[in-house]
Amino acid sequence: MTDAITVSAPRRSASAILFRYDLLPTLLVVGLAALAITWGHSAGLRFTLPLSVIIAGPFAAIALAIYYTRVKPDPKIAEIALYVGLWLFYPAFGVELTYLGTRLDFPLRDQTFIAWDRALGFDWLAWARFVLAHPLFKSVGDAAYSSCFWQPLAAIPLLAWLGPKGSNGEFLTSVMFGLLLTNAVYCFFPTIGPADIEHIRATGQIVEALRSGFQGPYSYVGIVAFPSFHTVMAILFTLALRHTRWLFAGFGILNLAMLSAVPFQGDHYISDMIAGAAIAIAAFWAARRVYRITD
């Protein structure tokens, strides 16, 4: 009798954690993918990578999560595997939604954002020249900007082991809220970006191809300008680690460097960053209301 209790208790615990904390972000990721696949199919949009390649890694991680939930219960490993799978799964579909939003062909808003930046006292071209004149600063910015790919994967085990229960769920939920809000706003405020306007580098080919009706194939490259999703991520990545002081400080410094890279490396107006910050705050507040994790 004692042995039966010992075996079954962890299994119930692991299942309860997956259901209580992880259901909402899982549904958000699945819903995002379903929307992108359905809309993309009806629009005839084609991509260089087949769906089977995109989902292979995430499905392997999620299968591992199921194994450590049902077969060899270990809540922490199950949580880590699940979130690795979810974080690997959603980005391609998020990118596809931005492509589909671009095809709605609303008027380009670059001149509006250039005027807003001038009103705020920001000169994008002067900033670009400063970055290009300081190679070390640019290299640091490049590294910080690309850290958006590995920061979540580094945060997942840290949140699972050191954070309050539900931290990974709140983290991914906040990012999904931010992504959906960003995509919704971007549909109505498309741009080709200041780098293309200032002839620093060609950045608007994908936007122009999508608006012309070209169906692809396309590679998965982010094209959102307004609002800045890198700004959303930098803020949410930092806030996710707020429960552990030294992690909060470390990720905060890294993400300040990411924010400094957003205008040039990310090809963004300052207006994009202000809108991204507003979306990050709204997404964080909404996720906190859902999870109610005590700070």
Walk me through the structure:
By secondary structure, the protein is mainly α. It contains 13 helices and no strands. α2 (51-71) runs antiparallel to α3 (75-102) and α11 packs antiparallel against α12. It is globular, with a radius of gyration of 21 Å.
Provide a concise account of the structure shown.
This protein is mainly α and 295 residues long. The protein is 76% helix and 0% strand. The protein has one domain (2-291).
Fraction of residues in H or I helices: over 70%
Distance between the termini: 40 Å
Rg value: 21 Å
Work out the helix count.
13
Q: What would the average pLDDT be, to the nearest integer?
A: 89
* Oligomeric category: single chain
Give start-end ranges of low-pLDDT stretches.
1-18
By secondary-structure content and strand pairing, the structural class works out as mainly alpha
Task: Summarize the SSE layout with pairings.
Blueprint: H1 2-43, H2 51-71, H3 75-102, H4 110-120, H5 124-133, H6 135-146, H7 151-162, H8 167-188, H9 194-197, H10 205-212, H11 229-240, H12 245-265, H13 270-291
Helix pairs in contact: 1-2, 1-3, 1-8, 2-3, 3-7, 3-8, 6-12, 8-11, 8-13, 11-12, 11-13
